[in-house]
# Entry
Amino acid sequence: MAKIAMLGSGFIGRFYADSLIGQRSRDTIVSIYSRREESAKKFAVDYNCSHWTTNMEEAINHPDVDMVCISLPNNLHEAAVMACCKAKKAVMCTKPLGRNAEEAKRMMEAVEKAGIFNGYLEDLCYTPKFLKALKSVQEGALGRILWAKSRETHPGPHSEWFWDKEQAGGGCILDLGCHCVEIARNFIGKDIKPVEVMCWADTQVKPIDAEDHAIGLVKYENGAIGQFEVSWTFRGGLDLRDEVMGSEGTIWLNSFLRTGFDMFTTGKGADYVAEKAESNTGWLFPVGDELNELGYNHMFADMFNAVEAGKAPRETFYDGYVVNAVLDAAYRSAKSKLWEPVKLDIWRGKEGLAKEKTLTDYNEQYYLIKEEMTHFGTAKLILKDKKTGQIIEKVV
Ligand SMILES: NC(=O)c1ccc[n+]([C@@H]2O[C@H](COP(=O)([O-])OP(=O)(O)OC[C@H]3O[C@@H](n4cnc5c(N)ncnc54)[C@H](O)[C@@H]3O)[C@@H](O)[C@H]2O)c1
# Structure
């Protein structure tokens, strides 16, 4: 049973708390730290916490606490992690780990030096759909993964600090791209090195210094391509979609706007619909169980199982660091308009991979390019001569 200190009582702190103590869980939040006394007290009442404080170290050092959950604005992650290292308490940190790879690397090195458990709270790599899709990919159902694309777009975040480049560390590339990059990394293979990034970014709508819309391509060493599409200017709710394309198959996931629950209402009795929904009348797309659909339940189960087994969880600070390094390259590329290298001082995966050759033999003379049954009943083969390179068509 985990005894948790929650740092931050805002949007994600409450989502996490609902998941942590929901469904008759054995885990408890024993201390809550919030910046303002009234928020800390309210959270303590709502989630039955015996201790609340406006002093972060006091929550971390509370004698009943054995695990800390960081749900603070991005610029406060590092200080919170360092305090956990000092107190030698297990730590889980929300995304993005750092505002940049430098911060993330310091955090990763500190937790590893302190020898404490570290979990990276990347919920979208734990949604039920994602976990099942990943299993199919890992079992080879899609063959060699060629392209993994992830989109997170919505009409913009809910608190002021997100919109301040200094506190947030960036705009939608960092805030939403961190999810997309880690989703694609999982599908392509976490041991495959991301090598280069090309990114377009702009501030199309909002009066802010950071970007509110971006599209990026992440090249992996084995020839696979990751793609992220992120926006704080998208209208219509929270759009979470992934696409994976392999040499043997394809997966499309729609995690939020189309979950199989469509509803129409004139607005009578209108209520909360789903995260970032822009309307509560007309045709709506509610979500049955947001905590589960967004991966929080599976994520915390993995974290606590890992702590108990003395193992690393699926997502660690190292993963958070790699994601930050990819996003740093995206920011550099958006400025330079060039492919920018991903700078990874620490890399623990495979090295020196090249694009896999996957030529399919038809017979001694030919490679098979493709076979197709036409609408007029002819089965055709497209073949390539191995020696001459000539491409021919054969009706079978
Ligand atoms: N799906 C996800 O994984 C997800 C979703 C939303 C936010 N997040 C992350 O969670 C973290 C917190 O985001 P949030 O949406 O809960 O923000 P929020 O503004 O709703 O809450 C932040 C909380 O931090 C505390 N705080 C302490 N010092 C503060 C300060 N100086 N300024 C502002 N708040 C201070 C406050 O208690 C506040 O309630 C961010 O790192 C964000 O990227 C993750």
Observations:
- The mean pLDDT is 96.
- The pocket of nicotinamide-adenine-dinucleotide is lined by residues 8-13, 34-35, 39, 71-74, 76, 94-95, 121, 123, 159, 161, 175 (CB under 6 Å).
- Residues 17 and 47 are 7 Å apart (CA to CA).
- The radius of gyration is 23 Å.
